[in-house]
Amino acid sequence: xxxxxxxxxxxxxxxxxxxxxxxxxxxxxxxxxxxxxxxxxxxxxxxxxxxxxxxxxxxxxxxxxxxxxxxxxxxxxxxxxxxxxxxxxxxxxxxxxxxxxxxxxxxxxxxxxxxxxxxxxxxxxxxxxxxxxxxxxxxxxxxxxxxxxxxxxxxxxxxxxxxxxxxxxxxxxxxxxxxxxxxxxxxxxxxxxxxxxxxxxxxxxxxxxxxxxxxxxxxxxxxxxxxxxxxxxxxxxxxxxxxxxxxxxxxxxxxxxxxxxxxxxxxxxxxxxxxxxxxxxxxxxxxxxxxxxxxxxxxxxxxxxxxxxxxxxxxxxxxxxxxxxxxxxxxxxxxxxxxxxxxxxxxxxxxxxxxxxxxxxxxxxxxxxxxxxxxxxxxxxxxxxxxxxxxxxxxxxxxxxxxxxxxxxxxxxxxxxxxxxxxxxxxxxxxxxxxxxxxxxxxxxxxxxxxxxxxxxxxxxxxxxxxx
Length: 468
Known about the structure:
Keywords: Signal
Strand content: 25-35%
Signal peptide: 1-40
Structural class: alpha+beta
């Protein structure tokens, strides 16, 4: 007997509309519960930790130097001149917090800007490991190697020409050039050895570092490009003359303080001035920029400011090139009484060409020394501006450095504070000093200067009693 399926009546999915709505709500509730559970599980899963950024650092030990410009830049030279690391600023001792002066040998940890960089973005663990004696600046013969740099074109920048060898030799060795200028200003105590002086043209590939005036990149590239047979160790000082056409440096010259390297940038006309050469060289020996009215480089009576003349009296003294006619203090300068001194112009010779005053009568307020000197045109001062010629210049210098007894590489902030005409009086109220000048004599070569320290005011100053 065959079986057969009987048709069944179709049953509705939900028995009633009300039941359908209930089932739908149950399904939605289940969905949201599952969704919340999934979200909770996902949010509780720990986020994979990111690796901290790589910090590149190197431990350094070397000689600290400053390149005086605006602003100054600081560097540590490692392995002589083969490597130099640029610092973010003047370093301070990590324990005491005291600023460390140039010329010291230091150890520190340098945080590098990148794996191949020589620029420190920060330094830690800074300490002094040695303080060598300053380099003598008197009775010195200079063996100078000048590298005149030419740039080859690269994908980064175009070719640029160099100053010619003949132009550089004329700048240094020509009549009234740098060598004569230095000899006159130093009274023969610092001279260029003309038999060893050499100019070498070097050609280096153009790079962004050179075009941005990175001094260490310029120096390193120039030394690598030296022709065989030129050994930098055979010279006492190295000078790099930048290619013609680089105008982005912001300086006409740059010198290590202390050190033996300097950089010169020709003007738009292709010129380098002898006073720029002198200023950078003297920075190698520890002289800092000269001040006037609170402006660095503002003293145009000296090559260490913006002048084309010899160093000022305090600078001549610091270099050991000239000596004072007298050093005055409370013991040697009687109160309320004039003391007289015959001065001759500084260009005439090294002995007795200034008066140095150490105003110890000020007590705790004694922080600066005073220098008086007659300046006139002649010798290395042949280009002295008229506002200083045949007049007495007054300078001040920080006593903690200026009175140390040895040449220090710290900055005494040498500042021009006065210029006195002949037959005039000049009061220095901050020092309780009255300065009186007499006639200028012998066509600007000699002058009589009277100095008095007063207690209450300059009117109390009188002439000394005649000797019996």
